[in-house]
Design brief:
13 helices, about 290 residues, Uridine Diphospho-n-acetylenolpyruvylglucosamine Reductase, domain 2, Uridine Diphospho-n-acetylenolpyruvylglucosamine Reductase, domain 3, FAD-bd_PCMH-like_sf, FAD binding, Enolase-like, domain 1, 3 domains, oxidoreductase
Length: about 290
């Protein structure tokens, strides 16, 4: 007889946290359920208690503040992201990325909060490059952390952090008076819900003279946590976009990014692929802007 866990249906964040704190490692939060499906395929059995977050209204909302953030509830599905008017208007970068994540049937179930909670989700590096923040609940009060800080807490304080509930993903509005450029690329297998071999995203704010005022680069790969390439970003900020600077950036990525081998690709392949993809994008951007201003 198959194991049937008990399903809990809290209607507030506080109630959900209390249930999780009671059963701790023998329980799990659940929204779309796609992570549990992945774990089952790997032979990991469900815990005895599943805490559904679907009945908590505040986790389903999308809102926008004109001078602040686009706020996305953690239970918003990936398919809903594709069609929401606020996201189409203010963060269409997300749309191009979500279209490359899994199959439509999976996107109908998978949530943006679950993608982050899985820690390997293909959307994480996109949100990192967009400088996203996380509003989360720690059992006492709501906290706000930059996404990369939140991920570090999940990894380094896994035992004490396992009860935390992601409430909203906050994406800052794009600065005015800049040429905003967003790049996303995913290389890998196209099965319904398998991690990419390598995914990279880059957000740039460029002045008319090709000067880079803002640069955020994030990369993820199979069996390796998504991360910002902070050293490469520091190299690029304040520089004028030239072929020489792109060559320097290429060298720094090879030094900074340290993925791991997996059955489908070596660490060296992933490292060079990340550098090649970003360099190709920047060269294309340079040529495009040169034509515009010639």
């Amino acid at each position: 007889m198959s194991h049937v866990p008990q399903i809990w249906l809290p209607v507030t964040i506080e109630e959900a946290w209390k249930i999780k704190n009671t059963f701790r490692n023998n329980s799990a939060y659940i929204a779309g359920g796609t992570i549990l499906r992945l774990q089952e395929e790997k032979g990991i059995s469900k815990p005895d208690h599943l805490i559904s977050l679907r009945e908590i209204p505040s986790l389903q909302e999308v809102s926008h503040s004109q001078n602040d953030f686009l706020s996305i509830g953690s239970n918003v599905t990936l398919s809903y992201l594709l069609k929401h008017p606020f996201i189409q208007k203010y963060q269409n970068s997300l749309i191009s990325a979500v279209k490359e994540i899994a199959a439509p049937g999976i996107r109908n179930q998978a949530t943006i909060g679950g993608n982050i909670g899985y820690q390997y989700g293909d959307l994480i590096h996109v949100l990192l490059s967009l400088n996203a923040q996380i509003l989360w609940y720690d059992g006492v009060s709501e906290q706000t952390s930059l996404l990369h800080e939140f991920l570090e807490l999940m990894i380094n304080q896994a035992e004490t952090f396992s009860n935390a509930i992601i409430i909203n993903i906050l994406i800052p509005n794009r600065a005015a008076d800049y040429d905003h450029t967003f790049y996303f690329e995913k290389i890998g297998r196209r099965e319904a819900f398998t991690p990419s071999i390598i995914s990279i995203s880059c957000y740039l704010e460029l002045q008319k003279g090709f000067k880079i005022d803002e640069c955020r680069i994030a990369v993820s790969s199979s069996q390796h946590f998504p991360e910002r390439l902070l050293r490469t970003e520091r190299l690029m900020k304040g520089k004028t976009l030239t072929k020489e600077e792109i060559n320097e950036m290429y060298k720094v990525i090879l030094l900074e990014y340290n993925p791991v081998d997996d059955p489908f690709a070596s660490a060296e392949y992933k490292k060079r692929m990340a550098a090649n993809l970003l360099a190709s994008f920047l060269v294309e951007k340079l040529l495009e802007r040169s034509e515009i201003h010639s």
